[in-house]
Amino acid sequence: MLNPNLKLNPKLWNDDVEQIPIRKGFGEGLVNAGEADKNVVALCADLTESTQMHLFKERFPDRFVEIGVAEQNLVTVASGMSAMGKMPFVSSYAMFSPGRNWEQIRTTIAYNDRAVVIVGSHAGISVGPDGGTHQAIEDIAIMRVMPNMIVLSPCDAVQARIATKALANIKKPAYLRLAREKTPVMTTEATPFEIGKAQVMYTPDGLAHVGVIATGALLHRALLAARDLEKKGIRVKVLNIHTIKPLDTDAIFALAKETRALVTVEEHQKIGGLGSAVAEFLAQKLPTPIEMIGVDDHFGQSGKPDELIEHYGMGREAIKAAITRAVNRKNG
Amino acid sequence: MLTEAKAYELSQKANSIRESIIEMLLTAGSGHTAGPLGMADIFALLYFHILKHDPKNPDWPARDRLVLSNGHICPVYYATLAHAGYFPVSELLTLRKFGTRLQGHPHREYLPIVETSSGPLGAGLSQAVGMALADRIDFGRSVNRFIYCLMSDGELDEGNSWEAILLAGKEKLHNLIAVIDRNNIQIDGFTEDIMPLDDLAAKWRAFNWHVIEVDGHDFMGLSQAFSQAQAVFEKPTVIIAHTIPGKGVKEFERDYKWHGTPPNKEQAHTALEELRTLGGKIKSEHK
Prior knowledge:
The complex is a heterodimer of chains A (332) and B (287). Chain A has 332 residues and is an alpha/beta fold. Chain A folds into 2 domains: 19-184, Rossmann fold (3-Layer(aba) Sandwich); 196-331, Rossmann fold. In chain A, 37% of the residues lie in helices and 19% in strands. Chain B has 287 residues and is of the alpha/beta class. Chain B has a single domain (4-276), classed as 3-Layer(aba) Sandwich (Rossmann fold). Chain B is globular.
């Protein structure tokens, strides 16, 4: 069952569950953050509406800077503004920022410990028809390896809105990963959110056989998979990792201890992403069989988002198969 | 305005800074020689005449900001900060040693009085643009605090530099003053052989900057250039300071091989002798 303490959206199981792009939640959250703090400023690299930053631009035109198609400048200008006490949010597609400007982020934001939030929209292969050049599936890897950097990957638009406000408050270097497509709304305004604190979304009756650790919009498919399998007698607990760094190692340790079999789920390369982060931790603290759902060292291609999710083995059935494999490895 | 007496005093400061640079590089055993020596006059002018700053209160909010974009010339930055009173001159000899605040390239975490960490080229001007933009948001177009960015000519090979130049021109950031150390050398050779930059002034003008060219060792000329830069209102200003790499030590001057090489003991001894006697004009007090 859904964790009642999280006050999740009861309609999340329904076919007609409300679907909103995660990036839209960011756009609204940024306006909220701007209302609460006059030092919040926004910078964009010619993708203002796409990244939903236009909402902030319309509300606070004097606190918005159009940088043009220049992602290296985008983050370095933001670093300078942060040095003067501003709280900049910079947005582009994840493929370009942090994809193109990684060293500038490392030196001028992370190494400098400057409060700048790098917002990578259109992350994952669900960008769809634009094709592989625009599908950032390496961004978690390159951002989580950076000292001082916080990495957030909210699961839906409501969580993205709340996460944006939280990032404006803590004033640290951070990466906020967003998806383009409409995605099911699983959380509500009442769902507690704390950076670095994983959320147990779904718990079976009795001890779980398998733990699923998911991030981003695929969390919804993971929940559906867990409910399907529970009907077949496989008890699955599902964890939402909205903060990939700092990783909630307490929650992961507890889940591994309870289940001794895990599946990680992310719209990202298996190399270097959430699955890797979980494996790095558990290999040292509590070796546990892990099956990983993600892209298997390929680039993406054009297609409909759902087609691509299925093709690259990240759909509901693929998650169920991975859960079954994890159970078998534990028992085998 | 700069008086003759003040200009002489600044030249003496610059000479002391150059001596420190040689001593630091000799002790460190690695680091850059040509750029720091070439920029000693400009650093002396900035920290002892132009900048609003307070070594006793480095966090003074109203201070001018100086961004050093080409972090590899940090020996001149550190030496100037020490001579200005930010930390003891004796600490300069810890350059590049384990545990030092004076990292091989500036790092804010170790030395918070630097406005930014730098080393990778082409990113300093963008940060200075961000600082100038922040001031414009807070104080409007009548803001009268200046953001200075010191950069090299070699780093103009970086695309990031031109992104910043474009944006500053677009935003008409009169509160931003860039200074290019136009010494015509980079690691692999002379800039015009590696990647030609001329007509450099025309390039910046085309990007809507006010451009001043000046002899980077002439205190009077430099002082006038900064006055003019502060007076221009509709545009950011770049001062293209023509400097002699390795300035002050004949053996090092104009030779790109000294870009990234420190002097050995003998070379350092000769260099110090030359600096302390002003090229043989006076007797060294160290003998």
